Design the sequence.
């Protein structure tokens, strides 16, 4: 693990609105170059998607890639675990270098216990939920979350179309009184959707295709950040 829980939360809050490159869409044949490029482009943190082929119908990568990325950068690393029974693996991902570990409420019978497990290991704890899952399913977990990841696609594959139901959930979460977790959105985020996500209350944005399919990472991240910032000022 690179940072303390408090440090990574402070770092991410300072980055709002923060565009987090999702490495699932990068060129893994040139991983070191890709990490260096997005870091030089101003990314405040990195988003790594772990898929098990069971909770979602896709496989991605595991501990070894997280360890490799950790060696390449000092940026905060969010590891988004799209896996069943994440409690079996969270400690291992934290040891691999994850600063923020995000689990799915749908993937475990006791999400509060897993969130507490993550925090006990010194990492920040995130909770994700899918488009069909109602907000009521996570409300009891919020006091144990450092971030909430609102999925705007069904998880498993990059390049999917944005689902507007995510905006309703973001509005409800951002309207809550008192201290609340950081609000992140993941899925179909690009120049045409980031503004609406920001206006709805999103603070962090996991972005894959829109960055890694663009020729200039710096310009893309800057433009996305600017659009999100302008919408935040207007709301």
Sequence:
């Amino acid at each position: 693990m690179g940072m303390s829980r408090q440090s990574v939360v402070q770092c991410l809050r300072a980055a709002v609105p923060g565009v987090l490159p999702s490495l699932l869409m990068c060129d893994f044949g040139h991983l070191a170059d890709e990490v260096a490029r997005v870091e030089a482009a101003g990314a405040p943190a990195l988003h790594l998607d772990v898929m098990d082929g069971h909770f979602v119908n896709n496989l991605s990568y595991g501990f070894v890639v997280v360890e490799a990325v950790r060696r390449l950068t000092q940026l905060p690393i969010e590891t988004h675990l799209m896996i069943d029974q994440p409690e079996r693996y969270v400690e291992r991902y934290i040891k691999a270098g994850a600063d923020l570990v995000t689990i799915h409420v749908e993937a475990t019978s006791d999400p509060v216990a897993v969130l507490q497990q993550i925090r006990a290991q010194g990492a920040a704890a995130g909770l994700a939920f899918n488009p069909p899952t109602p907000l009521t399913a996570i409300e009891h977990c919020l006091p144990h979350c450092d971030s909430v990841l609102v999925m705007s696609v069904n998880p498993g594959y990059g390049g999917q179309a944005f689902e507007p139901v995510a905006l309703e959930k973001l509005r409800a979460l951002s309207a809550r009184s008192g201290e609340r977790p950081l609000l992140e959105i993941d899925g179909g985020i690009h120049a045409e959707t980031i503004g609406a996500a920001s206006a709805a209350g999103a603070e962090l944005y996991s972005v894959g295709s829109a960055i890694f399919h663009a020729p200039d990472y710096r310009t893309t991240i800057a433009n996305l950040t600017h659009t999100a910032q302008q919408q935040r000022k207007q709301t």
Summary: The mean pLDDT is 94.
